[in-house]
Automatic annotation (TrEMBL), chain A:
Main localization (coarse): nucleus
Any single GO BP term: ubiquitin-dependent protein catabolic process
Naturally occurring in which organism (per UniProt): Australozyma saopauloensis
Tagged with keyword Metal-binding: no
GO cellular component: nucleus
Database matches in Pfam families: Skp1_POZ
InterPro entries in the cross-refs: ELC1, SKP1-like, SKP1/BTB/POZ_sf, Skp1_comp_POZ
Subcellular location: Nucleus
Keywords, sorted A to Z: Nucleus
Protein's UniProt name: Elongin-C
From TrEMBL, chain B:
Name of the protein this chain belongs to: Elongin-A
Annotated keywords: Signal
UniProt organism field: Australozyma saopauloensis
InterPro entries: Elongin-A_domain, RNA_pol_II_trans_fac_SIII_A
Signal sequence region: 1-19
Biased composition (Low complexity): 215-227
This protein's record includes keyword Signal: yes
Gene3D superfamilies: 6.10.250.3180
GO CC terms, sorted: elongin complex
Residue stretches of biased makeup (Polar residues): 316-325, 342-352
Disordered as annotated region, ranges: 187-352
Source organism superkingdom: Eukaryota
GO BP term (any one): transcription elongation by RNA polymerase II
UniProt keyword annotation of Transport present: no
Length: 96, 352
């Protein structure tokens, strides 16, 4: 596990710095590593900051519990309802 | 295992499905599960706000038709044979159906109102209403006959009982024989006329002068005659015999007495007749008497003789005498002629 970080840049230029391993849970982000983003370490996403924040939160959540077998221990991941619709779209985009 | 974010987001959308008014740029396939949960009104609103859904959401409309109008055809021929291709045939069909239903409901409300009104009217027809006053019924005038039919006196006995039948029988006979004075079986023992017979071993009762049968109003000349007769018929002492009054001589019968003298009363003197029970003078008896005066035939017949029972063409069985056709044609004709002179009411009573 390298200590590389990647920066996820939202549409309104918010920067979210995450560990590379965490970011690479998303297959889309993983694939983007092979391109220029791999060199710069910055991934520009056409996602609003609020939604990107939730996405990042989810990434951490999933990274924490990805090896967890017992489902009852894993807490429910709550999302704000007003973002639910857009989150749906973006989650589909990121294939999360 | 953690849930995928897509699913989580979708679940969140599910919960808030009713409050979604706009999906924006959301692609149809993503939001489809949510849309399936919506009803027609919400779906139409959504389509209005986010027209991106529209051509694809037609399937949703098909589903809605199936849900809301299960007994109607899913796709009508009208939809298929449109000259102008409809962009969303199912939606149009759904709208058509919903409109029909609305109209029907409106009509049914009206129909219900009409029916209840009709029922109310029917009810009020039969309801009991207090009346303050009433208009008198029109008097039905009955045609009065020229000759009033004889009204039978009302009997207190029911027609079906023996007494009633006897009563009816008597009434019918009265029509033929007139209102008779009640036959007094003890008339013969009337003391007015006879001298009392002394019982065996007893002395004859004191001689009482025999009352003069001739009325005092008779002519003076006849008086002497009657007194002579009386002497002739005087009672020898010691004997009591039944004395009949001398038959009234012709001269004693005045014109006034003549009228009242019927065949029945010929054996009695005028005074006697008045002394016996008087005939009730009702309208009925007056009528009968009048009719008797009019028809001489009845008078001529003797009391015991009943009027001839004639066999009419259909009633051969009634009169055994007239079995053969040839016999008594003449008589029949005569009798029929006779009959025709009778007043109608009596005629009818004879044959009943």
């Amino acid at each position: 596990m390298s200590l590389d970080y990647v920066t996820l840049i939202s549409s309104d230029n918010h920067r979210f710095v995450v560990l590379k391993d965490v970011a690479l849970i998303s297959p889309v982000l993983r694939n983007s590593e092979e391109f220029r983003e791999g060199e710069t370490g910055q991934i520009i996403l056409d996602i609003d900051a609020e939604i990107l924040e939730v996405v990042v939160e989810y990434l951490h959540y999933s990274h924490k519990y990805k090896d967890q077998v017992d489902a009852s221990v894993v807490p429910e991941f709550k999302i704000p309802t007003q973002l639910a619709l857009e989150l749906l779209v973006k989650a589909d985009f990121l294939d999360l | 295992m953690v849930q995928s974010l897509s699913l989580i987001a979708l679940a969140a959308c599910f919960q808030q499905a009713s409050s979604i008014t706009d999906v924006g740029a959301t692609p149809y396939h993503l939001i489809l599960p949510v849309l399936r949960r919506l009803n027609a009104k919400q779906l139409s609103l959504l389509e209005e706000n986010s027209p991106d859904l529209t051509p694809d959401s037609d399937d949703l409309w098909a589903l809605l038709i199936e849900k809301d109008f299960p007994d109607r055809p899913q796709s009508t021929r009208r939809n298929l044979l449109q000259a102008k291709p409809m962009r969303m045939p199912n939606k149009e069909l759904y709208m058509q159906y919903s409109k029909d239903r609305e109209n029907f409901l409106e009509g049914s409300a009206q129909r219900l109102r009409r029916i209840t009104q009709k029922l109310q009217r029917e009810k009020s027809k039969n309801s009991i209403v207090p009346i303050n006053g009433f208009i008198a019924e029109p008097v039905i005038r009955r045609r009065t006959l020229a000759v009033p039919r004889p009204v039978k006196p009302a009997s207190k006995y029911s027609n079906n009982s023996i007494m009633g039948k006897a009563f009816k029988d008597v009434q019918n006979r009265l029509l033929m024989f007139g209102p008779s004075k009640r036959h007094d079986p003890y008339a013969a023992f009337n003391t007015n006329r006879i001298v009392q017979r002394p019982k065996i071993g007893q002395r004859p009762p004191a001689q009482r002068p025999v009352p003069s049968p001739v009325p005092s109003t008779s002519v003076a000349s006849s008086n002497s005659e009657s007194s002579n007769l009386q002497k002739q018929w005087s009672v020898p002492p010691g004997h009591g015999i039944y004395l009949l009054p001398p038959p009234p001589s012709i001269s004693t019968l005045t014109s006034s007495n003549m009228k009242k003298c019927d065949s029945r009363e010929s054996c009695r003197s005028p005074t006697e007749s008045s002394a016996t029970r008087p005939v009730p003078d009702t309208a009925y008896t007056r009528e009968v008497r009048k009719r008797k005066a009019q028809s001489p035939l009845l008078e001529s017949r003797r009391r015991t003789q009943r009027p001839k029972r004639l066999g009419l063409p259909g009633n051969r069985s009634l009169s055994p005498k007239n079995q053969s056709e040839g016999v008594d044609h003449q008589n029949k004709r005569d009798s029929l002629a006779e009959l025709s002179t009778y007043p109608k009411s009596i005629r009818s009573s004879i044959f009943n």
